[in-house]
């Protein structure tokens, strides 16, 4: 497909677009950090957003909310794309709604309804194609879960991983070898994500808190996940796990030893390809830095004096007192 | 102190006694697995148990419950030792109650009340001395927390670790370099234990679920923790953690990347000294083992036949059919 001409000076996208998995209940009235991040990535004032409310059991009101929100935040246009059956998801008119958008936003609801209608249809392929050509794909709650290759279909809460407490289904696969869970801290879903990683240690378990977004972009061949919003993104890496998942009976608590745990608040970044934290430069305290700079100047003068060999104890004492007084005014 | 003569053939204890940290709400009417484990380690029908209800805000009824329970489970004797002030904890009569017991059981309640009355008094020293000479020391909820060197004083629940969400105080120190939390899964205390490990990565964080016990014994110079009961024991090992705990402000969510997580159900064992799972022999399916044994015998006969060089395709086919029929009856 030829590159679409744009009327702005926005850098034309190359390669797949960013993904944003939001843990549900994103702030819609206050700072709206997460939604603003989505809109900004989608082009800000030039954004044309398709809202996909298929997961939701609500009527047009769910679209109205996001339509109003994105327009208020400055989006140029918002359209609703709501296939409600696999037949509708093959309708060229519905599929065509995604042709010229800069962002796709999937609402919350029931991810199994969303995946059952969308996956493997022309509409599902159009979402993937849009992502591949640089369109931003975001979603909240159910709309976050469906982005991964392996999707939590449903399951119960609780901290303790137990056999059979949750089910996997196939997601859209915009991001591979991960399983994304949402409302993570708020609904205490540690247990079910740990169960999935214990049973499938090749998957990275990613739990996204409410009003929090995991922004995934491709950078130099690696997939980098950055965290925005109020909560944290929790990552379970089961590479070295020892588990009894293959022999645990019924609903018994599971052994899961050696899971690498990463709790990532806003501002942190994680390399999903390497499965490691992206280390940022440490925060420097300006007061401490200034103090050190002054001490460094003092030491240089002292070294010069010693090299000149002109130091008597009395001279040194006076000079240091003077330097220290000067230092206070720097 | 000379070894106390026992009237039974129980092995006289040498070295420190077992510890049992129970996550609260242990089953008192049904299987009573956790309490039975405590009593069995304390000598079963020869057990003399001191119940310490100092943490509790309840009156004599808390002692009455455990008195009735331990006697029903077969204990020879149960005494109450309840200092309610630091003065009382220096009273030789109260302290003397621990002289000839085989088990000490600390009830639930407020661990800060328990530690504030007991720690650094003659009574506190008597608990440590009893542990050192082989007496079993157990406790539930508050009575579990106080066993570690570093104790969760109080704090809020929630999955997400946040700066200042919980406080440390000094525990009895029966087990060092750990911090024990309780009601772990049920009250969703992942966050606060992670906060503590992020701030103090030298501590091993141990979260014990309700109706679950962590039994800690010294074996060949290592401290081994075995899990009994209905839930799991969760271990956070912060040795390799990367955290922003030293600079996170107010109540911000914390970065805690690279925590080793171990979820341990009943039957599993963990080496607290090495901070590794104790690997048990894998469970062998008897049907699969039998099938393999039969196949092994078949292969041996086949190898013998080949070595003898007397095999024609027809003979081989007949022989294998015969061997297979025999195998079915093995």
From TrEMBL, chains A, B:
**Source species of the chain:** Nocardioides panacis
Q: Which UniProt keywords apply?
A: Carboxypeptidase, Hydrolase, Protease
GO process terms (BP): proteolysis
Q: Does the keyword Magnesium apply?
A: no
Output one GO MF annotation.
peptidyl-dipeptidase activity
Question: EC annotation?
Answer: 3.4.15.6
- Protein name listed in UniProt: Cyanophycinase
User: Superkingdom of the source?
Assistant: Bacteria
Is the keyword Electron transport assigned to this protein? Answer: no
Looking up InterPro entries in the UniProt record yields: Peptidase_S51, Peptidase_S51_cyanophycinase
Taken from the record, one Pfam family name reads Peptidase_S51
